[in-house]
Write a structure and sequence with these properties.
13 helices, 5-stranded mixed beta sheet, Maltoporin, Chain A, mainly beta
Length: about 950
Amino acid sequence: MRIRAISLSLLALSTGAQELHAAQSDSPASTNVGPADTEIETVIVTTGRLVTNPNLEQSSPVGVIGADEIQLKQVNSAEQFLREVPGVVGNVGSNTGNGQRGAAFVNLRGLGVNRNIAMLNSARLTPVGLDGQADLNNIPLALIERVDVLTGGASTTYGADAVSGVINFITRKDFSGAQFDVSDSRTERGDGDHFRVDATFGANLDDDRGNATLSIGYQNADPVYQGERPFGEYALSYLNGQPLLSGTTVPTRFSLGASSYQIDPQTGGFPATTSFTGFNFNEQDLYQVPYERFNLFGQAHYEVADGIELYGEGMFVRNQISQLNAPGGTFGQSFEISYSNPFLPALARSQFCAANGLSVADCDAAAATTDPFDPAYRTFRTSVNRRFVESGLREKEFKTTMFQFRAGVRGSITEHINFDLFGTYGESDQQTRSTGQGLYSRFVNALDAVSTTECRVGGNCVPINLFGAAGSITPEMSDYFNTATTVGTLTSLSTLRGVISADLGISSPWASNQLSGAVGGEYRDYQAANRSDLASQTPGEVLGAAAVIDSTGSYNVTEGFVELIAPIIEDKPFIKSLTAELGGRVSEYSTAGTNNTWKAGGTWAPVDSLRFRGTFQHGARAPSVGELFAPRTGALANLATDPCAGVAPTLNANLRAVCLAQGAPVASIGVIPQPPSGLVNVVAGGNPELKVETSDSYTIGVVFQPEFLPNLAITLDYYNIEVTDAISAPTTADAILACFGADPLNPSAAAATNPACTAVRRNVLTGELTGSFSEVGGFPLPLANLGRLLTDGIDFSVDYRHELSFGELSFALDGNWTNRAVSQLTPTSDSHDCVSRYGNNCLSIQPETSWNQRTTLTVGRYDVSLLWRHIGGSKVEEGTTIYAPYAKIDAQDYFDLTTRVELIDQLSLTLTITNVLDEDPPIVGSGLGLGFNSGNTYPSTYDVLGRRYTIGARYKF
């Protein structure tokens, strides 16, 4: 067997523990697990540059995750192992139900999922949505040879979006034979079953002039509900640690005057107190998102003439991912109800009459007639909070079909000139079907009842009973107003790219290697559109959901680029090698005009065992189709404390004036409740006036490979990335600051006329910032080129392999120390440094320190490998009021143990125990970090499933 070694002179961020004893056999997919001969094969990593000369060193740090590491972890999607890479910030993924988009992305350096590019074999993947990101669920893991992770910017090499870096998935090009992989995983508690099977076939053609490979895969995952873990049974308030229950309740809560009361089904009336029994929405949310996936990937290449090769690849993926949430309901929407409603209890009727100023006689007369033309006929308007527990869970089912084809030709024009020309075309069609939410118009029809069996509109309408206990809504009632809705998102990407690279025939007087250069051009065309049914498009029609307005957008970009690598000095005293690297790109966007990016870097090796490297890059990112063209619609955002809530407006005249100017009724002042579940309405959407955002980044690093210990490699790299004119939107905290000032309970006298205040729109019945999106605008949060982002830190790695008399011991440590992660979303916003912080501005966890350390012992046909994953501690943002036990997260350490054995030459078995010590996640309550905080913790950062067992088998022939 030959041992494959990654050339660590090319690595600075070795992400997620490198290949087990540097990889296996002559193929990373091999099942050979025991040591044999130790012939060394070097992998030349060219991700991040255009020049392909393997004799030239690269100035940009590139991390590598080998296929063997993926096999040892026994993960089922690229997102699952990438989110554990030091320096990557957890995003909404497979362990988060709320905020699920039916796709998975990676957030390099915490700069956002939209500021990096996911590529397959150095070609962009078709995006899954209007924001331009590729779905990592589409990556064919069974055929992946390695994953290159380049951080610190790569816009010059790959174009816009590569502000924070590139993730390049490289497939095996010479697979021959057949290989079958099957694995099954479940937690120690017996749930969360995850099944995966892959079949890969390949053949070398015509005396190795070519190769054709086909990989087919299937996966299925079961849901894990938050209520199935003791720490997720209830959402816990981050303010006091008590269960945080929804104000959308069973029995129904109605507004009566300026206050809300929960009806008592026993008496048929409202109690004297406004207290109510809240609804536990948490137990039916998810810690593992259920999905089913089928993927097909094929590739081929053939040398049609000496030095000329045709190649192509194609992929087809069908995903079905389900987001399950607690039952839907009416979330404070207001409705007209007749006093003669047949389900309205007499006591409740009299209380509504009294609250609305009707005499007893008028009330009785109104109760006696259902004829709207009768002078005695009356209605009242009330906000309604009722969970449709009888309708079951809300389900949002994402069905995504994606295909992409690539065809190209590459080869040599002369001995020193190479070329590569290819084109790609891909489409993604995501159909989102939602059930269990209810339609406003049908709900209105069902409330306008003339009897217990007949609605005023007639037809198939079934009257609804909102005034009873759970079960008062019959299946017939539920079936009428609960109608499935559908939203389709269609995207396409066309690319044409050509590169010529060459040795330039000249060299420095002090170097033997020639100067190498590359020049090329690229054209990309993006198309994206939303198509939804009428109900989904109508604001406020789907209860508890924002409208999805049909939208269409596109843009194209034409680019030219050049790169030069110049060996300056070689084999001189104190200068074993000195190399300079330059590059530039000109991009012409149909929407954002012309933009230039460039880079400059170099490497210096004073001796063979020591090399210094550095690079500076000026990058850019153009706005996506969604950022440009998405219609402005309602959404939800975090806000725990509303300045207008409670008695505060009665104690300050300026505050009272602001609340009234925002639409709160006079009667609500003093009794406005705090936001239910810590959520408020906001308005967000695209802005066609957006421009390109720019970035400056640099890295400085060192690689040490001592001659006295040849199997040791140490890397250390400092990175610094700053994004200016960043496309961003203010947070609710920013909106509060802009309106109310630094002391929200004591605004200035001019605040009531401040546009930042009057732009906020409240519920005209209750004064709250929640309710139907068609009635309550909440906070406007527009996109603009006003933000600034800055992060810097150090990546480090240590890799060592030691031969023993009975086997081999390998050690790999890869880590990150983040110094700053600063964001300022608008010039008037506060600046937030989110390193080791969490809250409503620092949405996900970005620890100061994190590392992965893998130790592996190989003896004959056996491997035993221990992975130690460390996540540094964090604490709540400054100025955030929080329950004391939730104010800090201690450092978390997870240990994963893998045993692998080759039973026979063709068959190996792998057993992985993840989270061996069965560590529970840290609990910080709910409401801090919309989408990222779920189930009282951050499930994309910390383990919420507990100890898991995965057994896998690989058979190859």
